[in-house]
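Board notes (copied after class):
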Amino acid sequence: MLGMLLTPAVEADYSAIVELANWAYRRTGATASWNVEAGILEGQRLNESLIREDLAKKPQGQLLTYRDEPDGELLGMVWLDPRADGVWYLGLLAVRPDMQNRQLGRTLLAAAESFARERGAHRIRMTVLHVRSTLIAWYQRRGYVLSGEREPFPYGDDRFGRPLRDDLYFSVLPCPAKRL
């Protein structure tokens, strides 16, 4: 297993983060991720303006990069955002699709949970498009549960891509408190 360096992103990382997000979430073909959003959303998933916007709106949020060496290539990333009462939101978790099947995703998820716990998190919460059943099952195998709670999909806001369906919503998956 590779050693892991989970560090806050700096501006010099933004280009690689954008490239990885768009590869992991939207690229199709031979180099596509197993959890690509093909048939659900199209277009970009992220750009540098969106990174800056999120960091400005949520100054307590952490966009973290995952490398095996301090100056090594970007292997993964995750967004963590503290909310009320020790609950942290986790999103944008991705690893390089060409390095999947090496347990990097589960290692990154565990490191993100530890990062949040060390900073006072009692629970982690995420949202996943309800039609991404394979991804939801992956998170469930790691202790997350479908709460039955839903959040609306932001139709009309194409900053994160264009929806190809009109029935989208987010399922809320909290991590039970005992895991943190």
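Comment from the instructor: The mean pLDDT is 92. The chain has four helices and nine strands.
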